[in-house]
Write a structure and sequence with these properties.
The chain is α+β, with helices and mostly antiparallel strands and 391 residues long. The chain has a single domain, classed as Kinesin motor domain (Kinesin). Helix content is 29%, strand content 19%. The chain has eleven helices and 13 strands. The strands form two sheets. Strands 1, 2, 3, 4, 5, 6, 7, 10, 11, 12 and 13 form an eleven-stranded mixed β-sheet that branches. Strand 5 and strand 6 form a beta hairpin. 51% of the residues are buried. Bound molecules: adenosine-5'-triphosphate (ATP). The site of adenosine-5'-triphosphate has 20 residues, from helix 2 and strand 9. Its main location: cytoplasm. One of its GO terms (cellular component) is microtubule. This is Kinesin-like protein.
């Protein structure tokens, strides 16, 4: 992925010494870790949890996907230990978010070395599960936030599935109204899960723009839920180790905030621990004048930028400890509320271009990273155990 170096495109080099200039398309990826009690400046791959206090990292254009995944990998162990985890890619359109999260999916012929964070995380999750039998129950949902509407990409009757990815622009939803919970499919292997994600991706809204020939027009959120049934002697032990087998009777269900309570468990299997992994590929911030968006595409651009602004507002409110955090100003922040302001381990990969041409968008992205680093949260917490399975 090495990009041609651009003399003079030194943006950020003073602030971030290991930054390497590159072509816009082969982004410079920055990694940083920060923990709940966030201090320090800025950026990139910020990490609101207790594992990598005050560390952050900058990836140059020559870094491989596997190196980037190296900073994500420990979070999978945390997931099986009962923590909620969120990994999010942020950046301007064309800066490499989808490549980093999903791999070069649109070009086909993906090699293993190009695989993005989503397939790597899923494979690692099932590898860890196989090392600690019996297996927990794993479910997946795939949704996109498109024009402030939540589109269920696994639902057979969703507009995206019935009319295709190039669907008509739909009316924007009211973020204050509760959305129906998305389809959640139970899966027993990494390949099964990734098949569902790939199927959902086929229906994601995409459009060629002047900046990016295959631009995502929606925020993609893949949610993997790991539910562990705990026996009566489970106190103090890892959920992944303690969970009884759940292979039989897997079926589609619904998940998310409005999940209905499960029926009572039989004696001795009453307690459950549930942890979620959210993998988020945001749509790219975009200047309509540069991307050439008009008509419905302009409306998409407007909603993308508004929802990203709402995300920045939420981080601003959290960093300033304001009494009211405006999660409900957008579907995106509403969906991510638990990860942004809750007790999840939260990692953001900021993709930036140091090309002079994109300086305004790059500065805007770095400002987002700075704001995110200023958020102070407490330590990430393991999910409490519940008698009903809803935590
Ligand atoms: N690290 C990289 N190495 C090689 N190619 C890359 C890299 N990052 C991005 N690309 C290529 O650059 C192009 C744009 O990347 P990508 O689709 O990931 O951008 P994006 O940020 O998701 O854009 P948008 O927000 O518009 O969807 C793609 O063709 C992708 O394959």
């Amino acid at each position: 992925m090495g990009g041609k170096r651009l003399p003079g495109a030194q943006l950020g080099a003073g602030l971030f010494p290991s930054a390497t200039p590159c072509e816009p398309r082969s982004c410079t990826r920055w990694a940083g870790g920060q923990v709940g009690r966030g201090s320090g400046i800025a950026l990139f791959f910020f990490h609101l949890c207790i594992i990598f206090p005050l560390s952050f990292r900058v990836y140059g254009p020559a870094e491989s996907q596997s190196v980037v995944f190296g900073d994500v990998c420990p979070l999978l162990t945390s997931l099986l230990d009962g923590y909620n985890v969120c990994v999010m890619a942020y950046g301007q359109t064309g800066s490499g978010k989808s490549y980093t999260m999903l791999g070069p999916h649109s070009k086909g012929g993906e090699s293993h070395s190009d695989m993005g964070i989503v397939p790597r995380a899923v494979e690692e999750l099932f590898r860890l599960i196989s090392e600690n039998p019996p297996s927990p129950e794993v479910e997946v949902s795939v949704v996109e936030v498109y024009n402030n509407d939540i589109v269920d990409l696994l639902a057979k009757d969703s507009p995206a599935v019935t009319s295709g990815a190039k669907r008509e622009v739909t009316a924007a939803g009211d973020a204050r109204k509760e959305a129906a919970p998305p389809t959640c499919k139970a899966v027993g292997s990494a390949s099964e899960l990734l098949r569902l994600v790939r199927g959902g991706l086929q229906h994601r809204a995409r459009l060629p723009t002047l900046v990016h020939e295959d631009s995502s027009r929606s925020h993609l959120i893949v949610t993997v839920t790991v539910t562990t049934a705990l026996g009566p002697d489970s106190a103090g032990k890892s959920p992944a180790v303690l969970n009884p087998p759940t292979g039989a009777g897997r079926k589609s269900s619904v998940c998310g905030p409005a999940r209905p309570p499960r029926p009572p468990e039989p004696a001795g299997r009453a307690e459950q621990a549930c942890a979620t992994l959210q993998l988020v590929d945001l749509a790219g911030s975009e200047c309509a004048g540069v991307s050439g968006a008009t008509g419905p595409a302009l409306r998409e651009t407007s909603w993308i930028n508004r929802s990203l602004a709402a995300l920045a507002d939420v981080l601003g409110a959290l960093s300033e400890h304001r009494g009211h955090v405006p999660y409900r100003n957008s579907r995106l922040t509403h969906l991510l509320q638990d990860s942004l302001g809750g007790d999840a381990k939260f990692l953001v990969l900021l993709c930036v271009s140091p090309s002079q041409k994109h300086v305004a968008q790059t500065l805007q992205g770095l400002g987002f990273g700075t704001r995110a680093r200023q958020v102070e949260r407490g330590q990430a917490r393991r999910r409490p155990r519940s008698r009903t399975g809803a935590v």
